[in-house]
Design brief:
- The chain is an alpha+beta fold.
- The protein has 17 helices and 24 strands.
- The strands form seven sheets. Strands 7, 10, 11, 14 and 15 form a five-stranded mixed β-sheet that branches. Strands 16, 19, 20, 23 and 24 form a five-stranded mixed β-sheet that branches. Strands 9-8-12-13 form a four-stranded antiparallel β-sheet, with no helix packed on it.
- α3 runs antiparallel to α14 and α11 packs across α13.
- It is a multi-pass membrane protein.
- Belongs to the major facilitator superfamily. Proton-dependent oligopeptide transporter (POT/PTR) (TC 2.A.17) family.
- Keywords: Cell membrane, Glycoprotein, Membrane, Peptide transport, Protein transport, Symport, Transmembrane, Transmembrane helix, Transport.
């Protein structure tokens, strides 16, 4: 154990640990921010596979802490575990950076890798190494930081956990801003393209820096030796206690204070006492996973990201959480907690965690209120047995369309005001005619329920039914664009790098999706005059809208493009999410920082990492609960899901408050010191048996 030096009343060694954690979190979140795009755009997987691999990796990162904790507490010790697994982690980051080098297998220099399996294999090896690295060191770093404090430095240690949590969020915040900027740079030896090697290389370099910083502090750390295979002893002791209790279940045997006391015949009291401490805390953890169920990115996709002069994409709203944490951690520590203490309130760790859960519950109520406002603005899409139809006149004549129970007359190049909803059984006939033309044409089409259709008309007997394929707002807040070709030739259109290929005459392309902003597009066809422009611009796209662009020939032979709205853009502003993020962040700061500190302070010295891993496991279980609830409960209304989460959190908050009421705080160091004292006395008695016998002799006399 090294002598610890101090600075501002803190051990100097913790500054190395905090910088190490900042760099490691920057490295992890920076790499994670790129994964789905890398899988989709570089490796060429579809959205579903990319997302599935991403979630599997994220889950693995939360399950491996148990492994790291066992290695640290039972075998290598925290210091050596952090060093060893950081090396594994750094290699993993380097491997995934190498896997993204296009020129690695691009032997013919055409800009695409010739051997994708090599890139896939390398990236999977990299991810597995990273999962074991990041997960393995996670419980050790926080516990190792806590180890650096002396007895009587509880206040500084509590503040360390706040600074530690601040470092986590500052690292993740900066990396999620910086790595996407690096990705859009162009680089490559033979062909220039999105610079994934740089975007993955910077996190890899930061991980190497993290490892170097940690090693530099080596001489200042307090290092505790592991005490053998702790978990094996714990498991055997619990197993023996249960077995022994079962054997002595008759009333002839007197009851014991705690069921673990039935292990006293075989195991020493120190171990039994340590297991009791851990079991008490683990029992408290049971309701905690519910806290980690807060995800609102989906809600942001149905909102407008224009906040004043700036424009925010839906997935960027998550950074609000990290920004608020960076602001709120110091405010809580420097202002809120001292004020509560001045009011004479005993704001214990478990009370803080209860308040944190209550605030998170209120955050979901706020989210539900915002969702109700959003729902008022959302278009109605066809339900069970319904069909929605709109008519679009792409011809040069006025047209009349007869629907069951109503008719609409459309001028040239115009559409019905909105989609009309019909019960599929009652949609018996649709007829079209043109003023001045005696013929009436019946539209014959087998409409599928639950879908939207566009009826293109351009003459008394000319029509075409297009199945829209868009039965909800576009995902991720993007905008759907499709083109209708009225020319007598096939057209291909390129818009912002995406191609609408071979659109037949009087027909529509499928929708493709684009983020907000003005988009350039080029029309390619054989019959476009040499002096006619081919390049056009879209309108300024907002969030969550859909448009049809009709291409027609003007009287001078050149092309014109007319825009028709299919789905209106989102109108509720993303700024309305800030109150719920504020409530959640306050809850998270009070709950999460306190949870880290509580898990450390209540754990016996030989199980600090194991209890930190148990805390992290609640996060993993929480994420699984979110997936199950979202998957199982197909809610008609999104607000109902938020209210369900708010209710569950409130119920769990009450249960936790009751459990916390009966929890007795312990000081593991004092308990262990008492055992040390008792052991010393016993050893003295063994060495000098007359020390206890002498008074007996005198009495006998």
């Amino acid at each position: 154990m090294s002598k610890s030096r101090s600075c501002f009343g803190y051990p100097l060694s913790i500054f190395f640990i905090v910088v190490n954690e900042f760099c490691e979190r920057f490295s992890y979140y920076g790499m994670r921010a790129l994964l789905v795009l890398y899988f989709r755009n570089f490796i060429g997987w579809d959205d579903d596979l990319s997302t599935a691999i991403y979630h599997t990796f994220a889950a693995l990162c939360y399950l491996t802490p148990i492994l790291g904790a066992l290695i640290a507490d039972s075998w290598l010790g925290k210091f050596k575990t952090i060093i060893s697994l950081s090396i594994v982690y750094t290699i993993g980051q380097a491997v995934i950076a190498v896997s993204s080098i296009n020129d690695l297998t691009d032997h013919d220099h055409n800009g695409t890798p010739d051997s994708l399996p090599v890139h896939v294999a390398l990236s999977m090896i990299g991810l597995v190494l990273i999962a074991f690295g990041t997960g393995g060191i996670k419980p050790c770093v926080s516990a190792f930081g806590g180890d650096q404090f002396e007895e009587g430095q509880e206040k500084q240690r509590n503040q360390f956990f706040s600074i530690f949590y601040l470092a986590i969020n500052a690292g993740s915040l900066l990396s999620t801003i910086i790595t996407p900027i690096l990705r859009v740079q162009q680089c490559g030896i033979h062909s220039q393209q999105a610079c994934y090697p740089l975007a993955f290389g910077v996190p890899a370099a930061l991980m190497a820096v993290s490892l170097i910083v940690f090693v530099l502090g080596s001489g200042m750390y307090k290092k505790f030796q592991p005490q053998g295979n702790v978990m094996s002893k714990v498991a055997k002791c619990i197993g023996f206690a249960i077995k022994n209790r079962f054997r002595h279940r008759s009333k002839a045997f007197p009851k014991r204070e705690h069921w673990l006391d039935w292990a006293k015949e075989k195991y020493d009291e120190r171990l039994i006492s340590q297991i009791k401490m851990v079991m008490k805390v683990m029992f408290l953890y049971i309701p905690l996973p519910m806290f980690w169920g807060s995800r609102w990115t989906l809600q942001a996709t149905t909102m407008s990201g224009k906040i004043g002069a700036i424009e925010i994409q839906p997935d960027q709203m998550q950074t609000v959480n990290a920004i608020l944490i960076v602001i709120m951690v110091p405010i809580m520590d420097a202002v809120v907690y001292p004020l509560i203490a001045k009011c004479g309130l005993n704001f214990t760790s478990l009370k803080k965690m209860t308040v944190g859960m209550f605030l998170a519950s209120m955050a979901f109520v706020a989210a539900a209120i915002v969702q109700v406002e959003i729902d008022k603005t959302l278009p109605v899409f066809p339900g069970g047995n319904e069909v929605q139809i709109k008519a679009l006149n792409i011809g040069d004549n006025n047209m009349t369309v007869y629907f069951p129970g109503s008719s609409v007359t459309l001028d040239q190049m115009s559409q019905t005001n909105n989609f009309m909803t019909f019960d599929a059984d009652k949609l018996t006939s649709i007829n079209i005619s043109s003023p001045g033309s005696p013929s009436v044409t019946t539209v014959v089409y087998n409409f599928e329920t639950g879908h939207r259709y566009t009826l293109l008309v351009w003459g008394p007997s000319n029509f075409f039914v297009v199945k829209d394929g868009l039965n909800q707002k576009p995902e991720k807040g993007e905008n759907g664009i499709r083109f209708v070709n009225t020319l007598n030739e096939m057209l291909s259109i390129t818009m912002s790098g995406k191609v609408f290929e071979n659109i037949p005459t009087n027909n529509a392309s499928s929708y493709q999706f684009f983020p907000s902003g003005v988009k350039d597009f080029t029309i390619n066809g054989t019959e476009i005059g040499p002096n006619c422009p081919r390049d056009f611009k879209s309108s300024n796209l907002d969030f969550g809208s859909a448009y049809t662009y009709v291409i027609r020939r003007m009287s001078n032979g050149c092309l014109e493009v007319k825009e028709f709205e299919d789905i209106p853009p989102n109108t509720v502003n993303m700024a309305l999410q800030i109150p719920q993020y504020f409530l959640l962040t306050c809850g998270e700061v009070v709950f999460s920082v306190t949870g880290l500190e509580f898990s450390y302070s209540q754990a016996p010295s030989n199980m600090k990492s194991v209890l930190q891993a148990g805390w992290l496991l609640t996060v993993a279980v929480g994420n699984i609960i979110v997936l199950i609830v979202a998957g199982a409960g197909h809610f008609e209304k999104q607000w109902a899901e938020y209210i369900l989460f708010a209710s569950l959190l409130l119920v769990v908050c009450v249960i936790f408050a009751i459990m916390a009421r009966f929890y007795t705080y312990v000081n593991p160091a004092e308990v262990e010191a008492q055992f040390d004292e008792d052991e010393k006395k016993k050893n003295l008695e063994k060495d000098n048996p007359y020390a206890t016998l002498e008074p007996v002799k005198q009495t006998n006399m």
